[in-house]
Model the fold of this input.
Amino acid sequence: MRWPLIGGGVLVLALTGFLIAAGCRAKAAGSAVTTPTEPTDYAFDADRAWQDLVKQVDFGPRVPGTAAHKKTRDWLVKSLDPTSKAVTLQPFSHKLGGADVQMWNIIADYPGTGPAPRERVILVAHWDTRPTADYDPDPFKRLTPIPGASDGASGVAVLLEIARQLKAHPIARDVTILLVDGEDYGPKVDNMLLGAKYYVAHLPKVKPTWGILLDMVGDKNLDIYREPNSDQYAKAVNDRIFRAAKKLGYMLTPETSGFVDAPYKYAIDDDHMPFNEAGVPMADLIDFDYPVWHTTADDVAHCDAYSLKLVGAAVLYGIQLP
Ligand SMILES: [Zn+2]
Done:
């Protein structure tokens, strides 16, 4: 199912109106501190997030073992560094094609302002990209790496903007942003979800309370259903996100992209599953109705800044809900 989008200009105007209204409410509450009594999406900057999506795609495919992968790693650390006092690289290696390939999870922490003990929310996206365009319509391109605009860059771009928002406005809960490597190496699942599996096998002393995974959230015709594994293992987290999306007016309509409060047609095995199996409930926000998935056409032309806004604002708002 696909839905046409109305003109971006109309959407931008409508959003600006909403955000001004939200800002006024916050001021009327008379709060001078940065942590509000009511959740807000803090004017999640879709254009800024979009720049970070384009930048990642410009590095080239972020395939472990390549120069573009290392360059992207350094840029991600540099981007997160001004937002967090604690940005760390978690190195690990995995045997791929007979050789040990070096990979890195990237972790940034944002201490909360609420009274201890605080819940710790973990927000996850994969920063690596698929080395093979397995589903490319052109058989000669199937061994080519994908650009990974939605499948890779989109979730990371949203989390980089959330990082900037959390720096400017810490929330009550502790937040960890985790950019995982080796999600999409493949071709099969034994060589996938590698960074998530490694992180879960080496959980920090204060383990995350619950989390949200963002994967393939850039599709210009974005529709995000309730992923069934998420409902099975992390229903409360999924409920929270859909509550936030409703509150923000981000449900799918015939005119706009958005969330759909109904189960997706099948369950998806993604980076959230190692967490769910380790007792950290995690919901997966994913638009799997992406016709160019695992093809060389997973590029910026098939993505849209407004899609990043929908997901980023809903997550930012949702992690503040009681
Ligand atoms: Zn993929």
User: Anything to note?
Assistant: The chain has a mean pLDDT of 89. The two ends are 33 Å apart (CA to CA). The CA atoms of residues 244 and 318 lie 5 Å apart.
